[in-house]
């Protein structure tokens, strides 16, 4: 880890803990306890956004939805925070506690199509959402703490594609056309790559991604889940991962793979899907 990354990681940790402390103050006031003093704001922090800020912006979280996420993160990271939740309600906490104790509450935060549940940022029991325990998804918790990795639920099927060396002129031109197409569209379109050389297509796609400061992952359609429900959840997890990692997906399709459902945005709630490159 470079010195710059180490500085960011330490500052990110302070920012996350300070944000959780603000939620703790709200809980203490709700419980009629004397509120603890939150830590002072840090000065001279890095210009790179913190993980919490990135999540808040990327997933379109309201201030209340952000605090619900912090409520769940606090229980996992601080035993004293968990004990406080247990005194007031339960640990893990419930949406009912969040609605009662946190500022600017709104019921739409617990809707299935709201960002907390759509993006699987928190897990809740369907049908009894308000009173059931809620937990932060493990991958999301690690993201907030500054730990980056490919979600384990995707790792068996999705692989990282490193950027290659200098490309020959024809491949460089193809990568530039893809990058320009993405840059010119309000919602970057799906791009098809033709040809029999799978390695060349990976190289071109990785180079196009590099132009937009994206990384590239690849999925063979044959390795995707086979049932419709499993594919839908897999696709949702990938969409979330693409946002967390800043990645595009190269979907390698054979004629008989029937991979249309992996590309469908039906049920996405109007959220933008990540860039996908298809041979």
What layout of secondary structure does this protein have?
Elements: H1 3-30, H2 51-58, H3 63-77, H4 79-88, H5 95-101, H6 115-118, E1 122-123, E2 135-136, H7 138-144, H8 152-155, E3 158-161, H9 169-184, E4 191-192, H10 198-211, E5 215-220, H11 228-245, E6 247-252, H12 260-263, E7 276-278
Task: Describe the overall structure.
By secondary structure, this protein is α/β, with parallel strands linked by helices. The chain has two domains: 3-144, no CATH class; 152-278, 3-Layer(aba) Sandwich (Rossmann fold), CATH 3.40.50.300. It has helices spanning 3-30, 51-58, 63-77, 79-88, 95-101, 115-118, 138-144, 152-155, 169-184, 198-211, 228-245, 260-263, and strands at 122-123, 135-136, 158-161, 191-192, 215-220, 247-252, 276-278. A five-stranded mixed β-sheet has the order 3-5-6-7-4, sandwiched between helices. The chain starts with a helix and ends with a strand.
């Amino acid at each position: 880890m470079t010195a710059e990354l180490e500085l960011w990681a330490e500052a990110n940790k302070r920012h996350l803990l300070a944000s959780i402390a603000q939620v703790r103050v709200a809980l203490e006031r709700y419980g009629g306890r004397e509120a603890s003093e939150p830590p002072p704001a840090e000065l001279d922090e890095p210009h790179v956004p913190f993980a919490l800020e990135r999540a808040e912006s990327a997933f379109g979280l309201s201030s209340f939805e952000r605090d619900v996420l912090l409520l769940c993160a606090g229980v996992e990271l601080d035993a004293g925070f968990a004990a406080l939740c247990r005194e007031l309600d339960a640990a893990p906490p419930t949406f009912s506690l969040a609605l009662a104790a946190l500022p600017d509450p709104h019921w739409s935060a617990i809707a299935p199509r709201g960002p907390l549940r759509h993006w699987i940022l928190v897990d809740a029991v369907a049908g009894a959402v308000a009173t059931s325990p809620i937990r932060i998804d493990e991958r999301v918790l690690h993201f907030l703490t500054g730990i980056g990795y490919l979600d384990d639920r995707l790792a068996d099927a999705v692989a990282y594609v490193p950027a290659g060396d200098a490309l020959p002129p024809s491949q460089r031109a193809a990568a530039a056309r893809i990058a320009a197409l993405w840059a010119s569209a309000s919602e970057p379109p799906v791009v098809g790559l033709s040809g029999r050389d799978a390695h060349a297509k990976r190289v071109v796609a990785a180079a196009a991604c590099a132009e937009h400061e994206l990384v590239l992952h690849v999925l063979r359609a044959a390795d995707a889940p086979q049932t419709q429900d499993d594919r839908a959840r897999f696709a949702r997890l990938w969409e979330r991962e693409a946002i967390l990692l800043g990645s595009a997906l190269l979907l390698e399709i054979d004629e008989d793979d029937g991979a249309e459902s992996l590309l469908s945005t039906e049920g996405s709630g109007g959220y933008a899907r990540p860039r996908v490159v298809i041979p």
